[in-house]
User: Fold these one by one.
Assistant:
Number 1:
Amino acid sequence: MISFNQVSLIYPQAQKTIFNELTFSVPEGELLLIMGQTGSGKSSLLKLINGLVPHHTGGILSGEITVAGRSTRMHRPRELVDLIGIVGQSPAEGFVTDTVEEEIAFGMESLGIPSEVMRKRVEETLDLLGLAQLRNRPLATLSGGEAQRVAIAAVLTMHPKVLLLDEPTSALDPIAAEEVLSILARLVHDLGLTIIIAEHRLERVLQFVDRIIHVLGDGQVRIGLPEEIMAQSQSAPPVVLLGKDQEWNPLPLTVRDARRLAEPLREKLADLTPPIRKSPEIKSLPLILEIKKLMVQYEKNLALKGIDFEVSQGEIVAIMGRNGAGKSSLLGSTVGITPIKSGQVLLNGKPAGELKGKSLISLVGFVPQEATDLLYGESVLQECTFADRDSQVTPGTTYKILSQLLPDISEIAHPRDLSEGQRLCLVLAIVLAAAPKLLILDEPTRGLDYSAKLRLIKILRAMADEGRSVILATHDVELVAEVATRVIFLAEGEKIADGSTLEILTSSPAFAPQISKILAPGKWLTFSEITSALEQS
Amino acid sequence: MNQRSLHPFAWWAWGIGIAVTASQTPGTLALILLCIGAAMVVYSKKSDQPWAKAFAIGVRLGLIAFLIRMIIGVILSVPIPGNTLFTLPTIPLPDWMAGIRIGGPVTSERLAITATEGLTFFTLILAISAASALANPKQGLRALPGVMHQAGVALIISTTLIPHFVTSIQRVKQARRLRGDQQRIAFRKIAVPIFEDSLQRAINLGSAMESRGYGFNDSSTGRRFGSQILLSSVVAITIGVSLFLAAIEGAAIAFGFGIILLATGLFVANKSTKRTRYRPQIWERAEWVVVATSIALISLVLYENQSIFNTLSIFILAISPLFVAPKESLKIREVAH
């Protein structure tokens, strides 16, 4: 279906070879995963297939890429729409019209498909992707998972043979991600579509894929069956790490495979107790954040319906819940950027809305979902200087923090040119310069690969050890299992659960981490817990 | 399902018909009847969509225009002899402005003429706002001929981008608070992230449109030729309209020439784009009737003398959409199933 022949790609400014003489082919009806570190060229590889690279982005390409016999050299992306559909990283940014139905028909209108055929295809696609209820909805009101499905529907109506998706589940909660992925699996099995996805969240997609392309970052790629690639890869989901550690053969990729092999391990662990999570004596420590009867309203709908909770020193609190459950509103109210309808938010005993400047940032550091909003300097060094001035610390403080987080960062680099993980570290350094007592992170792992995530976990743990507190809102169950001491669950603007990480995560099947699914009923959450328990015994 | 509304172009034909009639009718009674007719149609046929508010805005604008016209008419105008009501103090003007006077006697005749002129303005504004309140602007854009499709898409994109731009500004302002930055004037710090954000978004949208086949079938030479003809037709029609309003000979020739050019231009341009339309707007008997009454309305005021019979006919023609605008639900949905 797709064949790469001696393909090389260079971006002239970057002076770096992205790909060097790639040769491979993808047969029809395969579900292929592209994995690799951030900035290694996953998106470029996807865009090469439909010709957006280099037609739309520039860059020097040599070699030949053909899709169903058509060369991307000779055809612009718009001339390949009947063969290839692509859904970008943030599908909402690619919407052209304003309602679901019109968006789905947009591509067909350009192709000049007769009106009656369009009607039929729109109905079919609405049914296929379960969007019939949403057909008249304005696109601006869709949730993340819905937008993703509409974007897929919008390319499917052109009846492509190949579907390309860039990080389709990164921004989604586990349930919405499951929905999108099961639809993709159905498209492969029922329609024989060839699907290629680039994704960081391996634990979500691994069970669906036929083969993996591992982009190594030095211009080379490795292609093989998931077991082969996983056996050699440093970054792997917990189930694979556990399988490698226990030398299980064949290497399990899914919870089901691992559970079958884990019988002896479960018996061995039955006598051991998981290391006690460092959960500070909450009652005795001073409170850093108190939220009382908090209500937040946007126009007519209540985003938060009377939330109460407090955070004391040294806690790492994870806030979970579906997209639109009110997580971001809750976090925003703690730094006074979400207007409060009623109730109180007290930071160290003072109302959050009244704090400003230095007195605010020395209490609370906030990393928003779009971390780049905080950056306006022209180089890493300039950002650090600004941060020193704003937080009134001795010049050089921010840069010192940054070089601990990222030892090899170039100080003259432009913040926009950094990878997602590097940028997050830069923003963290800026926020941490004022030594806040409370750090708040909104979706910190979107777009982070495993190594960047490990670094983040280390930073958060170190903060908690110093007696500082952390609140993070995230969909990343594995991250929560690693760091959180407490989990709060929100639904429809209400707090529906609040308790220890172990208790909350193991009680819900959708939000349980892989290790706990494999070792249930044992109370284990992470791979590292198991290894340290086994070492001690 | 929602009720079918008339094709937006039919509503515009109706609105323009009323506007032209108003500009050609000196009769106060006819003008008042036109206003009442337009209001009746709007209130019985309007939807609850946001653009339906255009009529209320139009009424207010029209009133302001009327008042301004009255004030100017009283203070500053050419003297008209007649029954003097009151006299304003005169301000002397230089010789070269002979014929114009500030202040002076105000006659009832002068007031009557000013009021009729003001009423004409009011009716014109009312007619246009009535059409914009009734015609669905999105459907109107979509109903544009293929050659103008790009302009339509650009408009729709820009309307969806404005709210995004607002949230983007909010986010950046919040970010400054989060960095503890208390500098008052910080154009750079706000502008740089917003511009970068908008640019990134534009690039993403561009690549999304490209990879969804936008511009797949357009042959550029045919389109360029078509656009040139269309442009000339707009020029010709504008000349025609100006000649007509200034009551100079030759208006009909320029106008007719413009219409012929317009038709050719659309034909050529549509030939070169092979786009199709999802759920095209339907144009049926009701639309034809509205357009026909609109043409009848215009010809009536152009070629007939004033009479009470005539004024009544104007009113009845003006409210014609009340009788023909369809009541059935969207027909096209049934056709498709």
Note: Chain A touches chain B through 72 residues (CB under 8 Å).
Number 2:
Amino acid sequence: MADVAALSVDLRRKLFSSPNGGEFTAIAGLRFSVSRSQFVCIVGPSGSGKTTLMNIISGLDTTYDGEVRIAGHEPGTGPRLGYMFQSPRLMPWLTVKQNVELVATHRAISQGMPDRLLEAVGLGEFRDAYPNRLSGGMQRRVALARAFVNEPPLLLLDEPFISLDVPVANRLRDLLLAQWRERGATIVFVTHDLREALQLGDRVLFMSPSPGRVVLDIDVPLPRPRDQESEEMESFRHTLLREHPTILAGLEESNLQDERRLMPAAATA
Amino acid sequence: MTAEVGVRGRASRPLTSAAFALPFGVRAASLILLVILWEAAAWAMSSPSVAHLLESVGFDPRDQYALVRNRIYFPAPGLIWLWQAFIAWMGGTTVPPSSTVLEALWHAATTSSGLTKNQMSFLGYTFTTTDLWFNICQTLYRATIAFVIAMLVGSIVGIALGRMKALNRFFDGWVLLGLNMPALVVGILCYIWLGLNDLALIVAVVINKIPLVAITTREGAAAVQPDLLHVARAFRLSPLTTMRRVFLPQMYPYFMVAARNGIALIWKIVLVYELLGRSNGVGFMLANSFSELKVGQLLAYAIAFIGVVMLIEAFIVRPLERRATKWRM
């Protein structure tokens, strides 16, 4: 398993210094590895260090005690990976197409990847529009196209569909799965929504409240395509909650709070 | 030389006195009406439908109507009325009527008085021109060089201060000192130390201007979003690409503010420094007008100079600004 791992993470400790001079341990003893083309979801309550973990894997944060190995690369250096942030983070002064081309390699451009991906996410006719002309969902689609444009071996997604309407988020999840099937990237997907994780992932890792570490690692044996509302999905989720009440208690609670905060009108029973 | 005012003034007397025979309310109302009409015309010219109309009869509104489209126009009727009212109130010889000013303008634009050499060389060609154009060109030349240097150096200093906290703490006092240094002190010292030449003038203007550019760009650099820089780092963009496509575009609004304030400041201090220690340029001609009490000439240079500044605003500054902020619309 270890020798074919596309990504292996072994973080002994990650400290943050707080403004009043103290120190805060965000991550302690976080260890996992992901095999090639696997879709892994990481679920954890707010403040469990999920985004910190993503920043470390992507190389944005280099001050940690531990090791991150990405297949085919020296420790500490990253490949050209794909990253989708919580917000779209597009350059407002560049058009949709320029935004995708900005991060694209010469190879990707010569193969026409920016246009092909924009077509794939249904934004072909908006390629010359500026991002502030687009809806939130369309901006995420641009960010999705941008994340896939170099066909990266590793793709990081940090709660990319947060604060979207349910239908828009569903459509984006389908797009993501379609691109994943086509291009076969290894995906690490962070969320605090258990239903989303079970719908998307081959495997789900559960993180503890801070200091974050993996407390549960399950495979999701359900056949694809999966429907969040389906009966087998619900029964799988209920079994999980019953078997691991302590681990998932805090998660479901914070989840409910977030749902109330983010989409008060949406009925997500 | 004050005689010119009296002689030339007579020609426009009848018109002036006829206009002022009207009761005050009528005069005031017609003045306001005139200004409103002028504004309305400018607004109509800049509206898309009128622009289309002009285009359909063969005008390219982007060229011919840049002044109007960019909402810049000279408030000529209002100014002339105000001016005439001022003459009536002041009387005497220190306030020439508008016809005298126009005549002085024409005179300066078409003749050489011998006060300045009026010889310019450009790309190896040397040519002789008239008082007005020579002196305006001298001033523009000095202002342009000083502007470019001050913007470049000031931006680099400002970005460095905005991005590096330690550097900012150390140089904060220096910037404050530079900001509050009286322009005249800098100008006089430069003339004493570097001689009465263009180099001294440009150095003095640049020293005045750099702290202003630096504080504006420092604000901008400190306000740059780390979010977008993270995108650049996560996708492994090269430092050059990050600078050009991610960092500097966030600075454009601050560059524009710095440039705009810079232009306004530079026009003013270049003229003062020319008055102080140069033997040509608009500032020098204003000094000459002062010492010989040629109010007509003084106003003529002022009007011509303001006109040139407005053309620069309409044809260079605003189009650039529009290009830089195109994505916001």
Note: The longest helix of chain A spans residues 166-183.
